[in-house]
Amino acid sequence: MPIREYAAVDPKKSCRHCKEGFEEVESMEAPARATCPRCGGKVQRQLSAPSVGGSKSGLHDRAKNAGFTTYEKLGKGEYEKKY
Asked: Which of 14, 17, 60, 81 could form a disulfide with 8 if both were Cys (CB 3.0 to 4.6 A apart)?
């Protein structure tokens, strides 16, 4: 399910929540939200870049915990064991 971002249409007629913008986890079929869930002020969906993949650090942490070994390339034919 995508995370959609919303922000107030008119910051003068909004609460802090929608003035600063907020995120909602919604299904693909869900229509765009028209109002702030806290104050009822008008909001509009913001255009944002999709999140692709995962964090590199999270991958390394999981690999280390699972007992895998990681090497870092130092030069041509040279590698250093990280863990």
From this structure: 14
The whole-number pLDDT of residue 55 equals: 61
Taking the C-alpha atoms of residue 65 and residue 16, their distance in angstroms, rounded to an integer, is: 41
φ, ψ of residue 31 in degrees (nearest 5): -70, 160
Together in a domain, 29 and 60: no
Kindly report the backbone phi and psi dihedral angles of residue 19, in degrees, each rounded to the nearest multiple of 5, phi listed first: -65, -40
Reported as a single tens digit per residue, the pLDDT across 36-74 is 999 999 999 999 888 776 666 677 788 888 999 888 899
Give whole-number Cα distances, 22 to 6, 9, 34, in Å.
5, 13, 13
Q: Is 26 exposed, middle or buried (0-12, 13-18, 19+ CB in 10 A)?
A: middle
Residue 81 lies in a domain: yes
